[in-house]
Amino acid sequence: MPLPYAFAVPRPEPNRLITLVLAVTGGVATRFAFPDAGWWPLAYVGTALLFLALRRDRARWNALVGLVWGVAFFAPLITWADSAVGWIPWLALSVVEAGFVALFAAAWTWARRGEAVWRSAALQVVVFAVLWVGTEELRQVWPFGGFPWGRLAFSQADAPMAALMSIAGTPLVSAAVAGVGAMLARSVLAVRRGTIVGTFGWLAGGVALLAVGLVVPLPTQAQDGELKVGAVQGNVPGQGVDAFGNVPRQVLDNHAQGTKDLLKQVAPGALDLVLWPENGTDIDPQVDQQAAATIDDAARAVGAPMLVGTVQYPDSGGRYNTSVLWESGKGVVASYTKQRPAAFGEYIPMRGFVRLFSSDVDKVTRDMLPGHKPGYVPLASPRLGRTVGIGDVICFEVAYDDLVRTAVTSGGEVLVVQTNNASFGYTAESTQQLAMSRLRAIEHGRATVQISTVGVSAVIAPNGAVLQHTALFTPAQMVATLPLRESWTLSDRLGRWPAWIIDALAVSVVVTGAAGAARVRRSDRNEIAA
């Protein structure tokens, strides 16, 4: 059988140094697609450069190239980890996450050796995207509960394809980004061959994929009334890992005062709910009478129930990161406990071993325990005459697809992301988290409030638009009227199915490629990505 034109003339494998340069450049470019820079088109450039860097037919070499790309991407992306816990954990996390890119690169090398993929440039684009998303799905759950930060979808909050979140969530958007990157790389290869039709064909395909999001409807209107909320960013005394120092009561008092300051914008009783951030009080009001009195006084003054981020210390040991719904004169009437504590930040796996590298592990004196119920908080609303479902996630939980989804499918009509960014100082961590909150609003068609101890806090429309936001490390209050929505998006209805299908396809193409490689001569395989 004659080879297709694209593979007709054998070419030598690319120079090793060039592939490493492409990898470093691609990783850095992709980092700048994320906030604070937020130059989202660079995500396509960065993945295109990775595609070009992986043209050698050597799985071990390509794994090294993937690792280099990953370090160049993750290390600058999560510099906030250095601010919070020091350079050793930051570097270790960067290398571990880069290891998933190395795994992707090796899998891509094996998968494209299959005869069908080797012969079809279009199929290569699809397989590249499928494998990328499959790898992202793996690092969302493993190890230690996973770390989804840096998924390609999270760079696209301002891009047209952000609308695809409402169709199939993060897997679809990440696949689209990787696909556009692969098409861009293919256009570069077509230029090298001098094929004008191929060049413009691949570019047109990428532009078409980008434009799909422009025709996806993102309704924002209320379906069952509106909820008027106040959100309080109380600020804290310091920054870094010891941001709260020895003054937790001052943090509580800051948020109580901020609640009363809402009365400069609204009359008592005008709000349906007041939102405090994660760790709005690090003193458990169910145990400490003074803390309970402070919170109850604030709730009574504003004339509204309050969703308060706090902690609980069970007698059996450990601690819970909890959000409680507090009504004046009644106390706690509902609660939600964080389901996915952050490994090495809120609890320390393998404490003895990790201590060999950093004594900072002992700053976490009591490991955080996971909750086991969805992030749903029922709010009895006298004004609306019914119970309103509040979908609640805490801090890094906004990065996990299933946690946010269950908060909505359990009955959440609005989303609340309670977070404490004080440990990360003036880094991009809070704006990276805000981008995720915006994408979750689109994914589930829900008005969303991200409320932080120190910022960035924001009110987000169901189409992802930021309606209000605050600055870092300053006291602030926001008042907003949120549309209540009960309908499910297609993404809600599909649930985990898109991810499961992509995972199955990823395994299949790798196995098929490895099995089919024997039918393709190594000298010909150099042309797989030439």
**Total domain units:** 2
What is the beta-strand fraction? Answer: 5-15%
By CATH, the architecture of the largest domain is named: 4-Layer Sandwich
Please state the overall shape, judged from the principal axes of the Cα atoms.
globular
Largest sheet descriptor: 6 strands, mixed
**Based on helices, strands and strand pairing, what is the structural class?**
alpha/beta
The tally of beta strands, per DSSP, is: 12
* Average pLDDT taken over every residue: 90
Stretches where pLDDT is under 50 for at least 5 consecutive residues are 1-10, 526-530
Helix % is: 40-55%
The end-to-end distance, rounded to whole angstroms, is 20 Å
Q: Output the radius of gyration.
A: 25 Å
Q: Which fold does the CATH topology of the largest domain refer to?
A: Nitrilase/N-carbamoyl-D-aminoacid amidohydrolase
Query: Would you state the CATH class of the largest domain?
Result: Alpha Beta
CATH superfamily of the largest domain: Carbon-nitrogen hydrolase
Spatial arrangement of strands, main beta sheet = 5-4-3-2-1-12
How many helices? The count is: 17
